[in-house]
Amino acid sequence: QVQLVESGGGLVQAGESLGLSCAASVSISRLEGMGWYRQAPGKERQLVAIILGDSITTYADSVKGRFTMSGDNAKNTMYLEMNNLKPEDTAVYFCYALLLTHSGKYEYWGQGTQVTVSS
């Protein structure tokens, strides 16, 4: 069982920056994958950034060059740094974790944190 708790959402103006954190209940080095998704009102949840296994981080085209995902093993925390925010970035942001065990793959989600970008 992995628990994920996001923090750092809020209201900002277009062009500003905001950082999100996701504290995991396990060492993030144990995770097969981790990432961030977002869901805007009336829309499906979409990928923002993800890293799986030993691969490089993949970003959605809409956030490339503006968002950066990182992790701190010592703090069991992953981050999403968001720069040059746009109104279309407004959404609830969820962190995601994938854990592999001898019994299978397990996906976990945080509770979500609201990010609102005003124009």
Characterize this entry briefly:
The chain has no helices and eleven strands. Helices cover 0% and strands 55% of the residues.
Any key phrases for this structure?
119 residues, mainly beta, 4-stranded antiparallel sheet
Strand content: over 45%
Task: Give, in order, the helices and strands.
Answer: EEEEEEEEEEE
Q: End-to-end distance, in Å?
A: 40 Å
Number of strands: 11
Largest sheet composition: 7 strands, mixed
Helix proportion of residues, in percent? Answer: under 10%
Low-confidence stretches: none
Q: Write down the overall geometry.
A: elongated
Structural class: mainly beta
**Cα Rg:** 14 Å
- How many helices? 0
Query: Kindly state the mean pLDDT as a whole number?
Result: 95
Tell me which oligomeric state these chains represent: single chain
What order do the helices and strands come in, and which of them pair?
Layout (H helix, E strand, L loop, with lengths): L3 E4 L2 E4 L4 E7 L8 E7 L6 E7 L5 E2 L7 E6 L4 E6 L8 E11 L2 E6 L3 E6 L1
Question: What does the model show?
Answer:
- The chain has 119 residues and is mainly β.
- Helix content is 0%, strand content 55%.
- The protein starts with a strand and ends with a strand.
- The model has no long low-confidence stretch (mean pLDDT 95).
